[in-house]
Amino acid sequence: MDAKELLNLVSGGENSRVQLKxxxxxxxxxxxxxxxxxxxxxGKLIIGVNDKTGDIVGLSFAxxxxxxNMLTTAANEHVKSAxxxxxxxxxxxxxxxxxxxxxxGNDKPHTDKDGLIFIKNGSDKRKVTSKEELxxxxxxxxxxxxxxxxxRESTIKDLDxxxxxxxxxxxxxxxxxxxxxxxxxxxxxxxxxxxINLAGNLLFGKNPQRLSPNCYIAAIWFQGNxxxxxxxxxxxxxxxDLPRMFKDARKFVIGCLRKVQNGKDFNSLGDLEVxxxxxxxxxxNALIHRDYFVHDSIKVFVFDNxxxxxxxxxxxxxxxxxxxxxxxxxxxxxxxxxxxxxLLPYRGAGSGILRALQAxxxxxFHNFPETEQFNVIIHRPANETQI
Length: 387
Known about the structure:
InterPro entries: RecG_C_sf, Schlafen_AlbA_2_dom, Schlafen_AlbA_2_dom_sf
Domain Schlafen AlbA-2: 14-128
Organism: Haliscomenobacter hydrossis (strain ATCC 27775 / DSM 1100 / LMG 10767 / O)
Shape: globular
Pfam families: HATPase_c_4, SLFN_AlbA_2
Protein name: Transcriptional regulator
């Protein structure tokens, strides 16, 4: 980094990726800054700059030696798991500034030496205390998966034996006896120790929402285009197992849409204003890839000019909206995705978004890491000739 690049960073002030310090003297506080960056998206700790004014203060030769040693010690000995950071000294008109580059951690959550967890919160940092947030961090590093979590109050009897048997015999072409039910469920990673996990409940549960009350779709057909509006034409909380939720949500959305002639004769059935494949792919995407550690429902809102599908959880593993539009995908729920190949019109090749865009380019994708939400907006065509 040269002086110009540094000054550009400093002129923007502190944010979630840049922290300014005039000087540092405490390895524990430095470690906490490193932890916060590592548990977030990484960032730069710039030392030798007044954090109130942005003025370059500079560091003495002794400070440079001391702070570089402190940064190394903090990252290696005061952060668990240790973080490898890069440091450099930048000369700005004869004044020396240290820039410590902290990468995003790959073994979250990182802690300080006392076991405290910090993340960035705008230009500041905050302590992580909620179990839900901690679970999401473990999930992001591949150390914990929501779909594999056993449901403490469940038993094997919470699964629909008939539904499971039908699936098993069709897929594996062999009969199954009820005496083998629990063993088969556990072999197929749908439960353990006589209990079922979230995936088992959502795929084959008798009453999935009893054990997983946030796993449903809240569907509303609004009158007009305003989310704050008080008038709606239809509203439904859609539950059941994943195939049932997909089927009923699809039926709800299609029931809200118009059919248009598209040049066909008067007696034809007409075409749905938004292709069905778009509805199918984006509903399946929400059900399979949402973050089940976020205790909220999927929202499907139909307005006069658009359809919105709001999924709990940001895109996984630093995935961006531009990457998913280019066909890149990263699975969050591997078990659900593997079973969806047999239970839903799902291919599992990461091409669902591409198929939706090819059929209907008027789709927007919005990722909100701060609020843990991923939104899809499908724009409806203007109300023209209607069947």
